[in-house]
Automatic annotation (TrEMBL), chains A, B:
GO biological process: iron-sulfur cluster assembly
Superkingdom classification of source: Bacteria
Residues at which ATP binds: 27-34
HAMAP family membership: Mrp_NBP35
Homology family: Belongs to the Mrp/NBP35 ATP-binding proteins family.
Keyword Iron: yes
InterPro entries assigned to the protein according to its UniProt record, in alphabetical order: Mrp/NBP35_ATP-bd, NUBPL-like, P-loop_NTPase, YlxH/NBP35
Name the record gives this protein: Iron-sulfur cluster carrier protein
Organism per entry: Thermanaerothrix daxensis
GO MF term list: 4 iron, 4 sulfur cluster binding; ATP binding; ATP hydrolysis activity; ATP-dependent FeS chaperone activity; metal ion binding
Pfam families assigned: ParA
Amino acid sequence: MLGGSHAQAPKLAGFNRIGQVIAVVSGKGGVGKSSLTALLAVALGRQGQKVGVLDADITGPSIPKLFGLPAGGLRGNEAGILPAITRTGIRVVSANLMLPEEDAAVAWRGPLITGLIQQFWGQVLWGKLDTLLVDLPPGTSDPLLTVVRQMPLRGAVLVTSPQQLAALVVRKAVNLLKTLNVPVLGVVENLAYYPCPQSGEHHEVFGPSHAYEVAVAAGCDLLVRLPIDPSLTQLGDAGRIEEAELPELAPLVARLLGVVTQRAQA
Amino acid sequence: MLGGSHAQAPKLAGFNRIGQVIAVVSGKGGVGKSSLTALLAVALGRQGQKVGVLDADITGPSIPKLFGLPAGGLRGNEAGILPAITRTGIRVVSANLMLPEEDAAVAWRGPLITGLIQQFWGQVLWGKLDTLLVDLPPGTSDPLLTVVRQMPLRGAVLVTSPQQLAALVVRKAVNLLKTLNVPVLGVVENLAYYPCPQSGEHHEVFGPSHAYEVAVAAGCDLLVRLPIDPSLTQLGDAGRIEEAELPELAPLVARLLGVVTQRAQA
């Protein structure tokens, strides 16, 4: 089903076969990028894909918590680092899996962050994956540059939220991705509205949407608008994100599966 | 009213007199840290203070937008950089004020970020300020370390949001601040609930609060719980944050004013 794997660190080239690498980018923090990464991984897994998640948010890693993976869960041998594996078989690497406690204080300088992300790519025994999702931290600093330069990205999924302020910061990321020649595969607006459980009315609690502006700037479709969903927060807080149902993600999942097909045919 | 100014870059020591420097910290992005910084600046200004805001979020600067300050608004002469000044007289320095357009793509590496923050502290003609608020980006990386090591911080205001996931990442910042001997002056929980405009009921749209856990970890009071307020988003998006009324901030404002008094008496 998949085309050949991309170039990777030489010593693991024979072991790792990764179909596509997709970055999940926002520029702005707190728009639910990590939750979306986790939900996308779950959705792709339900489509039969083998999925990995590389948590490149070294100073604010959220991925292990969402999947209920404990701190200290990363193992290694002389061949490389073994990813942690979630209940449904998603392979995860994150700085939080290396720490003795999940809230341990680590003061990371830029070069250390860069080095760790490079290790997560070049020294992890990912094995055969259809899709590797890379969860990037907020900002347009070292982690984004490292991921774009070191990994064979097929493209990025952009996450934004309704505020114009968020849209502004996300547009910065869009412009940087353009400069770096990373195609944007789709835009997701998170926290778009709150469906009142009493009246069913959609409250735009963060103001009217500015996501279409972001999509226009990125030159791609706005694929998904997600509501504020307290049950999703609770599943994430309980480490049970794999039980979530999010049919709204279907167009984005189809796009990511389509990208694989297109490239495999090429 | 104020004690002596703190040590600063030697050449500006005669010109700049800064009563207290307060960092606004979260660790987690998107919890409304920049909005809170702006609202705190406005509230302190209304108490008669001269206030400056140093936007240390180099890659995702939000402060100028909130105050309606245009890109390119920073001027300088041979003596130093002149801050932009808001309608109510708050002095602001931000990376976005240096850019030709507010969504210009800038790829910043760690050392460049560190250097720019140092410039914002050491080469800006702040003049006489009662309070300088430093808006820190998410994460526990270069910017936080630079600010803690270079500036004479009186303490930090911690901003969190209800999700346990946010609380986890904020606790990381708490632990790092402890290691670095920066006292936490107060905890603010933002986005705590959404008051339904129809029923008046408080919906915990991001799940039940975990802010008290953060306050306990930080060894300080939970001073403020702020609701989700669409009108505040709109004022911020319109660059009119100075028109906001936020009486809930009073205990935190009193704490910050109190800190000044205590130090002046010491």
